[in-house]
Every structure is written in structure tokens, then in C-alpha cells.
Design a protein that fits this description.
By secondary structure, the protein is α/β, with parallel strands linked by helices. Helix content is 36%, strand content 27%. The strands form three sheets. It has a six-stranded mixed beta sheet with strand order 7-8-9-4-10-11, sandwiched between helices. Strands 1, 2, 3, 5 and 6 form a five-stranded antiparallel beta sheet that branches. Strands 13-14-12-15 form a four-stranded antiparallel beta sheet. Strand 10 (201-206) and strand 11 form a beta hairpin. Helix 4 runs antiparallel to helix 5 and helix 5 packs parallel to helix 6 (164-178). The longest helix is centred in the middle third of the chain and has 15 residues, at 164-178. Mean pLDDT is 87; it is low at 299-311. The structure holds adenosine-5'-triphosphate. Adenosine-5'-triphosphate (ATP) is lined by residues 15, 20, 38, 40-46, 157. Residues 6-232 form the ABC transporter domain. Belongs to the ABC transporter superfamily. Pfam families: ABC_tran.
């Protein structure tokens, strides 16, 4: 078996006495696009900064391309492309000057790929960074990290604030980059549609802990939806549904999201609704949102207690 490109073991990071990353055991396999999801403050950027050697763990270990992340050699760093949150570029430089600066730090540089990505984003080499739109700055940042042809690409919220056309360009560039199966991508994002388009695997961080780590297919297969028609709901019957993720009130009943649906689950749903439940299509985004809402305590369980009390 090929070693994972990124591996952490019991990784923890505190800021003061606040645990931000907690006992993280993760493995990022080679040749795949892994999306890291989580609500604001879940610890995604902190984890990435530890992986990139910019922050030391409080406890535990992080290994990237076979080396300890906090003591990475320049040669290993040269195999990694890292796009920071916010696309920082020196505003007074031209795109061409940014490229010269970046190129000096890497052994290889694919100038035709660099120009191709600029073209995709409608950027000219002679433009000054300060004159570029946010989407164009993202395009330059992406071109700068991809031109050295990194084995591992780490992107922290690359589509933040981009319009749909720039987002599409970014997604297309990523898919193309990862298409030969030789490159590994770790992508932190909030954009679930983008994840569905580009990712092979999904990880979900909740309060610094890794709660989901699976393939996109297994995630999709593991979450099912049901529409239940009912004028009143017994909260005890609801709570007894195995694997219930979320229950959201709709005009004439509930939408339920459940994990790992079995015959037992279906029977419990039917008991709740007196046999008037129907499966509904759930998108990947629906599944993730239901999961995150529950973890944040915003799930409609609260509303359901109220529904029960109103009977
Ligand atoms: N240098 C620091 N000092 C103190 N607290 C910090 C520091 N860096 C991050 N934090 C805190 O750690 C928590 C997690 O931040 P982090 O940036 O890792 O989250 P995130 O999942 O990337 O969030 P977002 O989706 O908003 O980018 C936040 O509460 C943040 O305020």
C-alpha cells in the first residue's frame, strides 16, 4: 500500500487554554482530492498551518510527504504548493514579477501552464496586482502554486469571495491538475457544490475533531432523506429513529435525514408517521448541512420538541 501523503497522529493544538485541534488522526491518500469541511472556527486553517510547518502542534505528530511537518527540508517544501486563505500577493508587483519571484524558489516551472491558467482567468502578464479583481488575484495565486508542478497541493478556502465564473475557472483548473491521479490535493472550503464537483474524499472537522473521513460515494450512500407527512409528531418516537441526523419541519410534516438507513430505521420512521413517509433525494450539500447543523446544535430537534409540546 502507498503511504499516505499526509498523516497525523493524536494531533492537538491549543491557543492559550483553548483546544482548537483535538486528537486529530487523519490520513490523506495519494492521488486524490480531499475536501476538508467544517464551520467557521472548526480548526481547518490551524490544521493546515501545522501541516505546512507554520505552527507547532501542542501535542501529537504531523507527517507530510514522509517528513515531520515542523522540520520539513527545503527539498520537500519544493514538492508542495500552498495557497493561503485570502490570496496574499504584493500589490505593487506585476503578474510577471510575481512569477519571477516564485520561480526562483522552485526547481521546476511550467511556464505554459502558468500562462494557460492566467488566460483561463483573463489575466495579462503585465497587469499590476493592485489593479486585479479578487477573482483574478485568486487566479494568479493558483497559477503561482501550480506552475512548479507540486506533488501536493494545499488550498485554504481558495474560492472565498469569488464570483461564479471565477469559481468555475478554479474548479476546472483543479480538476485538470488532479486528473492524472499522480497529484494529491487538500482543499479547505465552505462551498459544498464545489466539493461535489472536484473531491474524491471528504473530511468534516467539528470543534477541532475529525468527525467524518470517507469517500464521496460512501458519504452520499450513508445519508438518506425522507419526507414524513404528519400533523403532530411524538418526540420520543422521533428520538428513537436510529441514525437520525436532522429533522426539519416543513408545512405538512418533516424532512428527515438519517445515516446508514436500515430496515430498522425505515420501521421507526413508519411508526412515527403511521406509514406515510417517502424517500426524497438528498444532495451531497443537504447531507453535509444536516450533519453540521446537528453538530452546532442548530438542528431542528429543538423545533421538534416544540412541535411535540404543541400537541
Ligand atoms: N494565532 C491564534 N491565536 C489565538 N486563537 C487563534 C489563532 N489562530 C486561530 N485561532 C482561533 O482558533 C479557532 C479556529 O480557527 P481556524 O482559523 O483554524 O478555523 P477555520 O476552521 O479555518 O475557520 P474559517 O472557516 O472561519 O476559516 C478560531 O476560534 C480562531 O479564533
Amino acid at each position: 500500500m502507498i503511504d499516505p501523503v499526509i498523516q497525523t497522529s493524536r494531533l492537538c493544538r491549543y491557543f492559550g487554554n483553548r483546544p482548537i485541534v483535538r486528537d486529530l488522526d487523519m490520513q490523506i491518500p495519494a492521488g486524490q482530492v480531499t475536501a476538508m469541511l467544517g464551520l467557521n472556527g472548526a480548526g481547518k486553517t490551524t490544521t493546515i498551518r501545522i501541516l505546512m510547518g507554520l505552527l507547532r502542534p501542542t501535542r501529537g505528530t504531523a507527517t507530510v510527504l514522509g517528513e515531520d511537518a515542523s522540520q520539513m527540508s527545503p527539498a520537500t517544501r519544493g514538492r508542495i504548493g500552498y495557497m493561503v486563505e485570502g490570496h496574499f500577493l504584493f500589490p505593487s508587483l506585476t503578474v510577471d514579477q510575481c512569477a519571477s519571484l516564485q520561480r526562483a524558489g522552485y526547481a521546476s516551472w511550467d511556464d505554459s501552464l502558468f500562462r494557460q491558467i492566467l488566460y483561463h482567468f483573463g489575466i495579462h502578464l503585465g497587469s499590476r496586482v493592485s489593479e486585479l479583481s479578487r477573482g483574478q488575484r485568486a487566479g494568479v495565486s493558483l497559477a503561482l502554486v501550480l506552475a512548479p508542478d507540486p506533488e501536493l497541493l494545499v488550498l485554504d478556502d481558495p474560492a472565498l469571495g469569488l464570483d461564479p465564473v471565477s469559481r468555475r475557472s478554479l474548479n476546472e483548473t483543479l480538476v485538470e491538475f488532479a486528473s492524472n491521479g499522480q497529484r494529491t490535493v487538500l482543499l479547505s472550503t465552505h462551498l459544498l457544490d464545489d466539493v461535489e464537483r472536484v473531491a474524491d474524499r471528504v473530511m468534516v472537522l467539528v470543534g477541532g475533531r475529525l468527525k467524518v473521513d470517507t469517500s464521496m460515494e460512501d458519504f452520499a450512500a450513508g445519508v438518506s432523506g425522507f419526507a414524513v407527512k404528519a400533523s403532530s409528531i411524538d418526540p420520543n418516537k422521533l428520538a428513537a429513529i436510529p441514525g437520525l441526523i436532522e429533522a426539519r419541519p416543513i408545512s405538512d410534516g418533516l424532512h428527515l435525514s438519517v445515516a446508514n438507513c436500515t430496515d430498522e430505521t425505515r420501521a421507526a420512521i413508519d411508526r412515527l408517521a403511521g406509514g406515510t413517509s417517502e424517500p426524497i433525494e438528498l444532495t451531497f450539500g443537504d447531507g453535509v448541512l444536516a450533519y453540521l447543523a446537528r453538530e452546532r446544535g442548530e438542528s431542528s430537534f429543538l423545533n421538534l420538541d416544540r412541535t411535540g409540546a404543541e400537541r
